[in-house]
Amino acid sequence: MKPDITNRYKLDFLILLEEEYGYRRWFWFPDMSTEKLESWWQHLETVEPYFMTPEPLPGELYQVESDEEFDLFVELESSLKYYCAHMHCDDDSVLIKPDKVKIFHKGYEE
Q1: Measuring CA to CA, which residue among 22, 85, 78, 79 is closest to residue 59?
Q2: Does a structural domain hold residue 109?
Q3: Can you tell me the distance from the alpha carbon of 30 to that of 22, in angstroms, rounded to the nearest whole number?
Q4: What total of structural domains would you count in the chain?
Q5: What DSSP string describes 74-85?
Q6: Residue 85, φ and ψ in degrees, nearest 5
Q7: Which of 56, 64, 69, 91 would staple 109 via disulfide (CB 3.0–4.6 Å)?
């Protein structure tokens, strides 16, 4: 497991990011507070800049690559203590709070 993930998720704001229905998973440590991130997401016109890779998102991202990292991702996701996100197209990308409230970006198309 990457050393930056090992303890950081216990201390910093973490979003468990799933890309394109499980194509890839990421540990995303945004460089802003939860309130600022929610506002940033709600004002996001489109997720198109992140379609090929979410790496330009604000903050640091670590791709889940090992079985150990995958197991941690699933464990944290199941704990219901962390924000989660799905990133793909404008019609399905969403930020989800730990209480399962969904936050849609400005360009979300139903």
Answers
A1: 85
A2: no
A3: 20
A4: 1
A5: HHHHHHT-SEEE
A6: -150, 150
A7: 91
Q: Could you tell me if residue 71 is inside a domain? A: yes
Q: What is the pLDDT of residue 54?
A: 93
Domain range for 9 is 3-103
pLDDT tens for each residue of 12-42:
999 999 998 778 999 999 999 999 999 999 9
Of the candidates 3, 9, 1, the one whose C-alpha atom is nearest the C-alpha of residue 29 is: 9
Residues 64, 53: Cα–Cα separation, whole Å: 13
68: which 2 tokens? 């150990």
The two structure tokens encoding residue 80: 């219901």
How far is Cα 16 from Cα 23, in angstroms, rounded to an integer?
14
Measure the CA–CA gap between 15 and 1, rounded to whole angstroms: 17
Q: Which two tokens stand for residue 76?
A: 């944290």
The answer as to whether 19 is a domain residue is yes
